[in-house]
Fold this sequence. Notes:
Elements: H1 8-35, H2 40-47, H3 70-83, H4 85-91, H5 95-104, H6 107-113, E1 126-128, E2 144-148, E3 151-162, E4 169-176, E5 181-187, E6 193-198, E7 209-219, E8 224-225, H7 230-261, E9 263-264, E10 267-268, H8 273-301, H9 307-331, H10 343-351
Helix pairs in contact: 1-3, 3-4, 3-7, 7-8, 7-9, 7-10, 8-9, 9-10
Amino acid sequence: MIDLELDEEQQLIRETVMSFAAERIRPAAREADEAGAVPEALVAAAWELGLIQGSVPEAYGGYSAQAPSAVTGSLIAEGLAEGDLSIALHLLSPRLVVDPVLVLGTEEQKQQLLPTYLGERFVPGSAAVLEPHTNFHFTKMHTTARRDAEGWVLDGDKCMVPLAASAPYIVVYATDHEGTLTAFVVASGTPGLEIGEREKTLGLHALELYSVALRGCRVPDSARLPGDASGLLRRARVAQSAMAVGVAKSSLDYAIGYAKERDAFGVKIGQKQAIAFMLADMATETDAARLLNWEAAWNLDQGNEASREVAIAHRYCADIVMTVTDNGLQVLGGHGFIRDHPSEMWLRNGRGFATFEGIASV
Length: 362
């Protein structure tokens, strides 16, 4: 039977993250969106929470006494995204390297790579998953990895690669000669790894996203994370589902607060049946999405492949965040369309979940 009861440590982590998101992230979200950058002071403050270090076992310099938990990672992802999605993705970007290395890496790779992300200061991580092809699916990458006598040669094009220009390592996902999805940890500056211009997107304005080209990019055998990398992208989908819940929850809470305060024809609009029913549907869908996300995360923690559970959660959460953020804007009426309120930002960010792939991890 599925057990979705949080333990004492998870409750504390959830409360800490939600408090930080409300007090530090939410007030900075609009300015970050307008400026196209996450404030360095905020990044430093978030680093002090130890969210990345807490997922890494003590043997490698982290704080955890056990293997990374997808449920705990989901709690963190949802809580931070409730503050702001772009900032959450920036703050959790080290996990794009840390988690693949922990899950698939050899002992030598763990000893070599993990200390980079466990120092006194925040170091960004990155992952190159999404490709600019209309028929893209992570199980059938166009990016190829060809083996030769000297190692591996990577060729292909990637898009929406977070923090690619500043990350010391990018985990590149490609299809090898046997048709297996494989991950490679590619160091910044490797010949053949070309970082393109920053992408211009509908949402996620504060998150630096880049196009990346791999042109005969040669890496040694030690750069390859052994095994099928499909499980890593299932973990990524769980993280994205959790963040979708966080964005939906933001829009829902703001709409409820607005409906309680806004007068129309002598009554609060929240007393209007159409608005009340809309808010009730939004709350129901958000809670349902969270439960599906937790179920998928719990199954991963049990060592199950969880392909079905992850796919259902990913699809449902991506749909619900669009519905809830759209309805949240509608509750505000004309005010929802102007930038004085954050509802339009949540709608822009929420719309992207249908296309996000591999930009977060748990």
